[in-house]
Amino acid sequence: MFEARLVQGSLLKKVLDAIKELLNEASWDCADSGIQLQAMDNSHVSLVSVNLRAEGFDKYRCDRNLIMGMDLTSMSKILKCAANDDIITMKAQDNADTVTFIFESPSQEKVSDYEMKLMNLDQDHLGIPETDYACVIKLPSGEFARICRDLSNFGESIVIACSKEGVKFSAAGDIGTGNIKLAQTSSVDKEEEAVIIEMQEPVTLTFACRYLNMFTKATPLSPQVSLSMSPDVPLVVEYSIGDIGQIQYFLAPKIDD
Amino acid sequence: KKKQSNITNFFSKK
Prior knowledge:
The complex is a heterodimer.
Chain A: E1 2-6, H1 10-19, E2 25-31, E3 34-40, E4 46-53, E5 59-62, E6 66-71, H2 72-79, E7 87-92, E8 98-104, E9 111-117, E10 126-127, E11 135-140, H3 141-151, E12 157-163, E13 166-173, E14 176-182, E15 196-199, E16 203-208, H4 209-215, E17 224-229, E18 235-241, E19 245-251, E20 254-256
Antiparallel strand pairs in A: 1-5, 1-7, 2-3, 2-6, 3-4, 4-19, 7-8, 8-9, 11-15, 11-17, 12-13, 12-16, 13-14, 17-18, 18-19
Helix pairs in contact in A: 1-2
Chain B: E1 2-4, E2 12-13
């Protein structure tokens, strides 16, 4: 028996919004410790990893490890039927070929349930090595979304250059060039408005706008985002999911041909 | 000119 109840059901709705453009289908691995999802986009350029800790749920039970393969378009359609303030419960029997989503209004006066077929997905899992990144940039998630959107007008790629002076995002194309520089904030009223740069060595890498823009669909999940970079390895874009977990996007850099 | 690399170039299959 698997059962996970989340009073703050809107978080699950936001997680789906954050992955459904990038992934058509994916497996949710349910275990005693919580729920995880790892999947590559169709082109194998990026990898998404979602981690939801068991303690983050208001009720969590997972008697046997369970892999629930889902069509994410279908899952998203079902979650759209939940109101933002609904309590969401996911339920499945051991070895079941369906999962049930239960939505309860806060007053408990409306209860809906939707059953969805599970899929058998043969997906590769990749081992992500523990990495000490040369640069870790924390910035407001809305600011990052704005930067990616604005620079996408100029070209297909964004160059992210992190140095002790700050971080510079650049794009170049037919209409011209754009540069956005952010310095570390000296003092802020709210922690979530801060730009914090931890740098061991300067790093400059180039990434596809299309993917960065898809990652920013996670913006409603968290007021802050962190970007981790080291030379010649994938960028990690990480958002926390309330206090129940996090979503990480890994994006392979563009390299010299 | 830069070309897009694949994530599988960096992370191996488990």
